[in-house]
Amino acid sequence: MTTQQTLLVLLLVLTLLTGVMSSQEAQVLHVRVGEMVVLECPYLSHKDGGATPLWTNHSTQDVNVINNMSTSAEQMDVLIHGRSLVILRATINHQGNYSCTYGNASRRFCFGLTVYTTQSREHGEKNQNPSTCYTQQSCTLRCPAVNIPPVNITSNGIMWHKEGESSPQNGYFESISEKDSSVYTCTRSYLYRGQTYNMTFTVSLDVKPSSEILSPHKNEAFRVDLGSTVVINCTVFVNSDFDDAFWLSDGSFVETDNSFPVFYNSTRVKNSKEEKLTASLVFTKISEEDLLKNYTCKLESSHQSSSFVTITLTRKAHHFPLSLTLCIVAIVAVIVLTIGGAVILSRGCSRSKGCVRLNRAKRSSSHLSTSWSRV
Length: 375
What we know:
InterPro entries: Ig-like_dom, Ig-like_dom_sf, Ig-like_fold, Ig_sub, IL-1_rcpt_fam, IL-1_rcpt_I/II-typ, Immunoglobulin_dom. This protein is an alpha+beta fold. It contains five helices and 24 strands. The protein folds into three domains: about 5-120, Immunoglobulins (Immunoglobulin-like), CATH 2.60.40.10; about 125-210, Immunoglobulins (Immunoglobulin-like, Sandwich); about 210-315, Immunoglobulins (Immunoglobulin-like). The strands form six sheets. It has a five-stranded mixed beta sheet. The chain is elongated and about 135 Å long.
């Protein structure tokens, strides 16, 4: 146990033994050397609203009451404004335990302050603030708005830095990707009496895959038979229990009651790696009216913009089986060959008859010539 932790425990024990009750657990702050620190004394009722708390520094040697009039406070860059105790630039000497009270010993609030060197990794680990964004979405990093100085100390903007990079960033990603996962440091700057003072925080950014519709595809057409039962699955990758998918028919919600001719139902399957949601659109009996509508699977998420996929239904074009087609072709071929053969044969026969008549005519002519010569 460190010296600071020991002092904090002793302070709490002393508080209990003397009958002084704290209204909250001790707040512990972790800061770097040179940074500004703000301790704010809470109040429990409207009676405390206008009162100025009494601050006490419980050091290793003695207990010091802090007020704006003390010389030691000025020398240590400590000031009090309203309910806030402000250390303009923290040093190792500021490390320790503090408490505040509004004069009523039954209400005392305790604070612990640990001051690290600028090279300390422990400070970053203690001060990390987790943040989650999703791929292909816009993302804005939020610098923690805690321990904000009083109004007489003016804000001078926020600067972001990615771990391992020196170039400043604005903390905004138009379309974030998994490679942007990292630890980022935000520095809040403040102006007071012509001097600049800083407060730094670390944000651990985890970029996860966005929820998305895996199937069907956009404008996909499904071929169906009239009178048939058809089920179309909308499969969605989800990364949150609050993500949901459902079906629309021409912009109207499809019912989940299976007594309707068209309805849908949902199932979730989750394993160690991923979670998928399936919204099944069911047509109990395809009708002509169903073919005239557009159907949309819509994904709604708590952490990203909605997405959707619209599909249509078309009637199947019926084709003859291949075997039947071959039979028809064969029959047609036989008919063509038969007719062609008949034509050829008929032409052959016609030529034969013509030749016979010509020979007969020649023989008749020859007989006539012979008869005339005899005469």
